[in-house]
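Sequence dictates fold. Below is an illustrative record:

_____
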Amino acid sequence: MKIDIYTDGACRVHTSKTGGWAYSASIDVGKDVPIEIWDLGAEKNSTSNRMELTAIMEAMKFLWHSNLLGHNITIFSDSQYSVKGCNLWLKGWIKRGFISSQDKEIKNRDLWVKVNSLIKCTHPKIEWIRGHDGCPGNERVDKLAVIAAEQYDEV
């Protein structure tokens, strides 16, 4: 089984700092059309980086709760911060107690701790893709994340 997940986050920085996140999972079970599942959410007083990371975290939680572990899983994100954090920086942060190489506590530590535990369970490949470049999966989650932030802002 092959699972491709696109993630994105958005933040209304110029207004309320409401952030939105979204993921879209395409699960190929060998039929003609893959199963498509998506989710989105939002929070007040956030940042784009928090929302990008939350989208990845929520996608991995979906995999865990749906018992979709042990498959060929790829998570695509247009966030260099999230992808490099997961693939390059996280191991060093853990060794240093979530302290950066500049000897400061890393930003979004609460999310990185959760992401780390989920990576250990789900073992996804996490790949960077260029945002706003016409990729249908990325464009879909971008729109969903913006909608989530806008709708939450209106409540």
About this structure: The mean pLDDT is 93. Residues 136-154 form the longest helix (19 residues). DSSP finds four helices and five strands in the chain. The domain at 2-154 is CATH 3.30.420.10 (Nucleotidyltransferase; domain 5).
